[in-house]
Design goal:
- The chain is mainly α and about 240 residues long.
- About 75% of the residues lie in helices and about 0% in strands.
- The chain has two domains: about 70 residues; about 160 residues.
- InterPro entries: MFS (IPR011701), MFS_trans_sf (IPR036259).
Length: about 240
């Protein structure tokens, strides 16, 4: 097997600090805003600072000969659309492992360990779906698969609002299993098309940015869902 190597580049320390601090501050600002640990204007200031740091990184990347993340990646349409799609969809699905155990414990009265175990069908469905994604993509293509499975995931998440403690356990577990299969199909399809058109020179950087986007969107999904819960908690809490 040929040993393909790329030229060694100096590490972009300044770009790493600008980009890394931007992500940390943005995620922290969303969490501070949701948890109401500090005043709202402080959380909004942290978020605004993170945006300024991101803009500073973009300016830095345009001038640096070897930036941490090359902006030329976004000239590839499938990559830019894939990154945006990953961020948007994982904001919605990333909160499921956080909200479902809360609903099962607080709303349905299950213990913490039972509620955690009831999320297992999601993982099982995700693993099983890996073996069927290729056939689905060959049959429907990327466009129909991604549009259809995204709508289906939205409907599956919405139907959980109709669940009640009186329902049999299997009626809770089966939708979680199906949801896991749908999310796995969506993620696999989106990840492959995101990296499909990148050149050999950009593949490594594109894969790194995709991994960062996935983790960031999941953390933001949890933070935003916590913020929404805090908002509705304030509306429903009776004033003494």
């Amino acid at each position: 097997m040929p040993d393909f190597t790329t030229p060694r580049r100096p590490f972009d320390t300044r770009g790493f600090l600008l980009f890394g601090l931007s992500l940390v501050l943005f995620s922290s600002g969303i969490e501070l805003f949701g948890e109401k640990i500090v005043a709202s204007w402080i959380a909004l200031t942290v978020i605004a600072l993170s945006v300024l740091l991101l803009l500073a990184y973009i300016r830095h990347a345009r001038r640096h000969p070897a930036p941490l993340i090359s902006l030329s990646l976004f000239k590839t349409r499938t990559f830019s659309v894939g990154i945006a799609g990953n961020l948007a969809t994982r904001l919605g699905t990333g909160c499921v492992p956080f909200l479902m155990p809360l609903m099962l414990q607080v709303g349905f009265g299950y213990s913490a360990i039972i509620a955690g175990c009831m999320i297992a069908p999601t993982a099982v469905g995700s693993i099983i779906a890996k073996s069927t994604v290729t056939q689905i993509l060959r049959w429907l293509g990327y466009r129909k698969t991604l549009v259809g499975v995204t709508i289906f995931i939205g409907l599956m998440i919405a139907q959980f609002s109709f669940q009640s403690p009186a329902m049999p356990v299997w009626m809770l577990l089966l939708p979680l299993f199906v949801l896991g299969m749908a999310m796995s199909t969506q993620f696999t399809s989106m990840n492959t098309i995101t990296l499909a058109d990148l050149t050999d020179d950009n593949a490594s950087g594109g894969n790194s940015l995709l991994a960062v986007t996935q983790q960031l969107s999941i953390s933001l999904g949890v933070a935003i869902s916590a913020a929404v819960l805090r908002f509705y908690e304030g509306l429903t809490t009776p004033v003494p």
